[in-house]
Write a structure and sequence with these properties.
heterodimer; A: 670 residues; alpha+beta; seven-stranded mixed sheet; six-stranded antiparallel sheet; 20 helices; 16 strands; elongated; B: 158 residues; mainly alpha; two-stranded antiparallel sheet; globular
Chain lengths: 670, 158
């Protein structure tokens, strides 16, 4: 059986209202690349594809349903329709469709299914019987790769790999059957007439049964309560991670703005210092000051203040002869003493000369420069500083608002959900713990035992004792034998399947992974264990992990006899360019239809390599019609057959447009 | 001794020795006040309780201008006397203003006169800017664009 994804239609949801068709040329291509800028709704579409296939949208809480509404252009109703084709050997392919109708007011989702185009949509999720076994949530997760799927398959603390095998090959059904047999036996043994003397034992057994039923019910409740919690957790986890990424981006912007602000602050400080330095020279302050000083200078010159030092006359006074060789008599000395008072001392002359010199000097300095220049420069610096300061403050305010208004609520909600999950998981862990002594448990009262494993052991022992007395021992043995057969069969099948899948995986890996980078699947326990030679390793490189995950998924699909398309969110984002090229070479060989949701930066190396190794590629670019995306409209091809336009989105199926497309407005994914 | 208005301390808290400020000492601000006082011919006799000593000599950046500041004081005093400049007046004023015994070349009278101008200048500035200026660059810009324009277009400065 070959299943092909033909396309989808969406309306009123977080993703744009669009119709994407992989069969527009009449036949689906092997490789289908859907390029969507961040924020267009890749994750939403992949979530919806998964929901359409599994029918689990009816289990969503109103909170989860409302997460799919379009926040920017809210509509009360939304639609998502997924089209598939199923090809059975020797039969003509038939098309089917699943449709989800969202009621955002009530938070409900209603399904309808198209199995016969002549009849139209039937209410409910009702896949054809041949497809139904593969549309279990665990099976769908194998071929619809969401965010962390690759990591989950290799995570030793998770059992995604084993659960996928069990789901795909019906082993989970065997486990359910075993449980049903146990319950049935308990019901029937409870109705057996009590034999005298056995009342106490029977009563004790019934108490253990009652307690078991209670704990089983509790286990079931917690498992079913955890499902929507996990869903909300996944939604919030994505948002929290994106918010953190946004915060990292914002921090980087903040750092840049801070740097610019610091630089302009330093420039302003320097300009202000220059201004003040210029003001220290009074000639820069005012022309009037300059004028007054120059007048003083001129007057000092004009006034012809005594140019000879008083010291000269004081020395002359004490001499015997005048400078003209005439003898200094008393009258002459008296005249000199009297008149030398009008002359200045050396120090006074120095000061006055200093004043005249510095008036000249600083007046010249001031004249040689534009006195407004430093202040003009400072004005520019103030303007730049104020702009930078404003940008910085606005950005910080936006960051704070984002954190306070949105992220804080979201983080609180996420913590709350994590807490609830933890609480329920802890209880389940105790219920499902498979260790301890049943002999100890048997001595206690049923209510004191919280482990189903031990309760089962105690019941088994008590049943043996009772059935020996009331003659139903044969029935008990038959029941236990049947359960053991089922358990052994399940275990054996599981082991064999894991082994076969491991071998097939390694054959595929040899084709995908280049020789120098070789690694293999060593074993499959709960998770996939990889390694090389004798050594196991916790993780491979990004490229190795992706190769292992794809090999595992496609092996499961092939081995099950149902070939599903491999639908992957960000198929090469964790890969180096060389690994992308290697994957591009082999991708068309790995599966019959590959649908990869990518962003522009994932194209490097990947698309070129794909193009070199297959001709069967469908290029689709999907973007929102929003402010900032106008540039894309101008780039669209003239051939209108290649463009589908809705109220809020554009789908372009042109290769050149696909290649030239570059996200001009990177934002958080939704 | 240079003396400054006691209120300057609180008034200048955001601009004196602040990050990026060109005003590193109280004498820097004193000088700006002095210029305003000179420009507006404000040299009131102040209450000694209202001023505080700041420094005995010019700080290094002002040292190079000591002759020019003395000349400025001289010009101001001659202008303010209302008399024509003549040998006797200049000699008299120089005797009053200058001192050969002080590294500032200022006499005690000059210090007193400068302090009065600085005191008057601060009060004038504070009238316009009653609260502490938030930062040095806005203050200095205002000082240059507004205060100095106002001081030196006034009729008192001849």
């Amino acid at each position: 059986m070959i299943i092909n994804l033909l396309g989808w239609k969406s309306y009123g949801l977080r993703c744009p209202d669009t119709e994407v068709a992989f069969d527009s040329s009449g036949k689906t291509k092997s490789i289908n690349l859907v390029q969507m800028p961040n924020g267009t709704g890749k994750s939403t579409i992949i979530e919806l594809i998964g929901a359409a296939l599994t029918g689990n949208g009816t289990e969503w809480s109103p909170y989860v349903v409302k997460q799919f509404s379009n926040n920017n252009d809210y509509k009360e109703y939304g639609e998502f329709e997924l089209r598939l084709s199923i090809e059975m050997p020797g039969k003509k392919a038939k098309n089917i469709a699943f449709k989800l109708d969202f009621d955002f007011e009530t938070g409900n989702v209603l399904y309808s299914t198209l199995r016969d185009p002549t009849v139209g949509m039937d209410p409910g999720w009702d896949p054809p019987s041949e497809l139904r076994p593969f549309l279990d949530e665990k099976c769908v997760e194998v071929f619809v790769f969401k965010g962390d799927k690759v990591e989950h398959l290799l995570d030793k603390d998770r059992s995604d790999a084993e659960m996928s095998i069990k789901a795909f090959f019906g082993l989970l059904k065997l486990e359910e059957l075993s449980e049903f047999i146990e319950e049935d036996f308990q019901k029937r043994s409870g109705s057996v007439r009590t034999v005298s003397g056995q009342t106490q034992k029977r009563k004790n057994l019934e108490d253990w049964f009652t307690h078991r039923r209670l704990l089983k019910e509790r286990e079931k409740t917690y498992i079913s309560e955890l499902k929507p919690l996990y869903k909300i957790h996944d939604i919030l986890k994505g948002k929290v991670e994106k918010a953190m990424a946004g915060q990292t981006r914002n921090n980087a912007i903040k750092k840049e703005l801070e740097k610019a602000l610091n630089e302009s602050e330093v420039a302003l400080s320097s300009a202000t210092k220059e201004c003040f330095e210029s003001l220290r020279n009074p000639f820069f302050i005012s022309n009037k000051i300059s004028l007054g000083m120059e007048t003083l200078h001129d007057n000092l010159e004009k006034l012809k203040l005594p140019g000879t030092s008083r010291v000269f006359f004081e020395e002359l006074r004490d001499s015997d002869n005048c400078i003209c060789d005439r003898p200094m008599d008393k009258a002459a000395k008296a005249a000199i003493i009297k008149n030398c008072e009008g002359f200045l001392s050396d120090d006074e002359i120095n000061i006055i000369n200093g004043i005249k010199r510095d008036i000249d000097k600083y007046s010249s300095i001031a004249k040689s420069k534009q006195k407004e220049e430093p202040f003009k420069k400072q004005e520019e610096c103030i303007k730049k500083y104020n702009e930078d300061n404003q940008s910085y403050k606005s950005h910080v305010a936006i960051m704070e608002n984002e954190v306070i208004d949105k992220q804080k609520d979201m983080m609180d909600e996420f913590k709350d959900i994590l807490g609830k999950i933890q609480e329920k998981e802890n209880i389940l862990k105790v219920l499902q713990k498979k260790e301890g002594s049943y002999l100890d448990a048997k001595k206690r009262k049923p209510n004191d035992c919280r482990q189903l494993f031990l309760i089962d052991k105690v019941i088994e022992k008590l049943e043996e004792e009772l059935t020996e007395i009331d003659g139903t021992v044969e029935e008990l043995r038959a029941k236990n034998k049947l359960k053991k057969i089922l358990s052994d069969a399940c275990q054996l099948a599981n082991d064999n399947l894991k082994n076969e899948i491991r071998e097939q995986c390694n054959i595929k890996l040899k084709k995908i992974i280049p020789e120098g980078d070789w690694l293999e699947v060593k074993k499959i326990d709960n998770s996939i264990i990889i390694g090389f030679g004798d050594k196991e390793q916790h993780r491979g490189s990004g490229g190795q992990n992706v190769a292992v995950a794809y090999s595992f998924a496609t092996t499961l699909l092939e081995r099950s006899g149902a070939e599903f398309p491999l639908i992957v969110d960000h198929p090469v984002t964790a890969l180096m360019e060389s690994a992308r090229r290697e994957l591009g070479k082999k991708l068309a060989e790995i599966c019959h239809q590959f649908v990869g949701f990518i962003i522009d930066t994932e194209k490097n190396g990947f698309t070129e390599s794909l193009k070199n190794h297959t001709n069967s590629i469908q290029y689709i670019t999907l973007f929102k019609k929003i402010k900032g995306n106008e540039i894309y409209l101008e780039m669209l091809p003239k051939d209108k057959n290649k463009v589908l336009e809705s109220e809020n989105g554009i789908v372009c199926m042109d290769e050149v447009f696909f290649e030239q497309f570059k996200d001009v407005n990177p934002d958080e994914d939704i | 001794m240079f003396k400054i208005h006691k209120d300057t301390k609180n008034w200048s808290k955001n601009i004196l020795s602040a990050k990026g400020s060109p005003f590193e000492t109280q004498l820097d601000l004193y000088y700006l006040f002095f210029i305003v006082g000179i420009g507006q011919c404000k040299s009131p006799n102040y209450d000694k309780e209202k001023v505080t000593d700041i420094i005995r000599n010019y700080t290094t950046p002002f040292q190079a201008y000591r002759e020019v500041y003395a000349a400025l004081l001289l010009v101001s005093e001659i202008e303010n006397s209302g008399l024509e400049m003549n040998k006797e007046l200049v000699s008299k004023k120089m005797e009053n203003i200058l001192s050969t015994y002080d590294s500032t070349i200022l006499s005690d009278n000059s210090f007193e006169l400068m302090n009065q101008y600085a005191f008057g200048g601060f009060e004038l500035i504070r009238e316009e800017w009653p609260k502490a200026p938030p930062n040095s660059h806005d203050f200095l810009k205002w000082y240059y664009d507004v205060m100095l324009q106002q001081c030196f277009t006034d009729k008192d400065w001849k």
